[in-house]
């Protein structure tokens, strides 16, 4: 799967609207989980792999590369960390996590 780039065709949009490019990226396995985990602070590859439970090293490497190429994470001395853009994105999607907990109660 190619890196979703705004302005280029992406999953769900032939014109590559920026929101669709972002949703394509975030819809990939463990992309949001990695961002969610890194909001608590930098993490090593091994800690990310433990957090992501069943993720293969190949998939984790691919997802980390995609998130780095999209300027959402960076490699630091402490491990992988969110960039300023990554932190801003987390702050936008975090309320969805809170809403989802309330929504999930409808299924009990």
TrEMBL record:
**GO annotations under biological process?**
regulation of DNA-templated transcription
Which UniProt key words apply to this protein?
A: DNA-binding, Transcription, Transcription regulation
The record places domain HTH hxlR-type at 17-108
Q: Which Gene3D superfamilies match?
A: Winged helix-like DNA-binding domain superfamily/Winged helix DNA-binding domain (1.10.10.10)
Q: Which InterPro entries match?
A: ArsR-like_HTH, HTH_HxlR, WH-like_DNA-bd_sf, WH_DNA-bd_sf
A GO term for molecular function? DNA binding
Cite the CDD domains for this sequence: HTH_ARSR (cd00090)
Q: What is the protein's given name?
A: Transcriptional regulator
> What organism is this sequence from?
Poritiphilus flavus
């Amino acid at each position: 799967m190619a890196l979703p780039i705004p302005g280029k065709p992406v999953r769900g949009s032939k014109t590559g609207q920026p929101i669709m490019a972002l949703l394509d990226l975030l819809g990939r396995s463990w992309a949001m989980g990695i961002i969610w985990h890194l909001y608590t602070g930098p993490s090593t590859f091994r800690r990310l792999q433990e957090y992501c439970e069943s993720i293969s090293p190949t998939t984790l490497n691919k997802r980390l590369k995609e998130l780095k190429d999209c300027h959402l994470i960076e490699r630091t001395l402490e491990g992988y960390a969110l960039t300023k853009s990554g932190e801003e994105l987390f702050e936008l999607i975090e309320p969805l996590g809170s809403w989802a907990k309330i929504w999930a109660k409808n299924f009990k």
